[in-house]
Amino acid sequence: MKRLFIILFIFNAAPALRAQQLPGDLPVLIQQSFNYFPQFKELGQAIDVEQQRILLAKSAGLPSVQATGSYNYLNPVSEISLPAGPAFQIMPKSNYKASVNGSYTLLDFGVVKASVDRAKAGLQYAKDNLDYNRNQMAAQVSGIYYQITYLKAAIQIQNSVIDFLESNKKDTEIKYKNGDALKYDVLSIQSSIDQESNRKIDLQTSLNKQYILMEYTTGTKMITEPKGFNFPAEGLEDGLEQALEQAWNYNPEFKLLKDKIAQAETELAFSKTGGKPVLSLNAGTGYTNGYAPDIDQFRYNYTAGVTLSIPIYQGGKAKKQVRLAQSQVEQSRLARESLNNTFRSNIRQVLSDMASNRSSLVHAAAQVAEAKEAQKLAQSRYKNGIGTNLELTSASTNVQKAELTKLQYEYQLCLARVEMARLTGVKYW
What we know:
By secondary structure, this protein is an alpha+beta fold. It has one domain: Outer membrane efflux proteins (OEP) (Up-down Bundle), CATH 1.20.1600.10. Helix content is 68%, strand content 12%. It has a 4-stranded antiparallel sheet, with no helix packed on it. A hairpin with a 7-residue loop joins β2 (79-80) and β3. α3 packs antiparallel against α4 (111-178), α4 packs antiparallel against α7 (252-271) and α6 (240-250) crosses α8 (317-383). The protein is elongated, with a radius of gyration of 40 Å. Residues 1-23 have low confidence and may be disordered. Residues 1-19 form the signal peptide. Pfam families: OEP.
């Protein structure tokens, strides 16, 4: 019984699980583009590079140990002559040395810390750069997705127009046989059918190109139908100031600019350490010859001490680096003001587009209803022999125009929402 319950549960849950993984679902397609597009692998590798830079910067503050071995032949060498005996050498001609030496920085006045902070700022920039490119890619995939939605809906409108004309062509042919219509009427309707069929072919060609572009971007073919113009994000029409605040906090482009300012500030802090002294501990041990009285014998030795290095003159390099870093910080801060103005203008335009398209949709829906009603009347008049073929064709054209206009407003409103999500940094995937 328990096994049967599990089987029934899996069977009932399968459609829901499958619905969450539809290849035609927009968030799924966006995620697939992140996993497939080669640029994101490169950006991920850039993050790894910056992480290695942090480890490299930290290693400058760790102890350094090295083993050395050397041989030097020296001739002539110093000799001491004694009155009562022969002369003897105070150093060997053949000098051998094998040692292990180590050093450790005791005090660097913040040099290593500034270097690590600079590397961490680079890592944060690499991460936000990945988010920036994901935000751009999501907007691109969304644009393709809703272009496919628009083209498929436009093709459906074309199909309905062609079906309507085909139906009226049959009625006209019957009238022509009965002598109630002219051959011109039949040819005129056929001409309209051919014209609308060519338009459908153009739309289908554009649709096929968008499918190819989607496959290029995501590495997969769209199997299922798009789900209309329902954009999976909310709170996109809260107003200019709210949208701008959202952009300041979440848009990756603002984050990148903040990262540039942080990088410039860490570069400034690092440049200020250029003229700082360094106190280090040095020690070594090993074997060497040259010790009296038997200067050729290998003997064990060791050494230990501290070294204080104080830069005195470097051609003004440190001061020049500081001035350069200060200029870079100021440049980054000025760029923030320019970006604020650009985003404010873009957000205002998108909000205006959204409001305009939403208002136009109301009138477009009314126009569609009116055009369809007029089409019914024209078709009825034509069947009853009161109306003309011109009235019928004109009514059909008006319905087509009204439906395409309404579809265009829906498409433009959806694209405006996509753009608003991109500007405000909303992650809808």
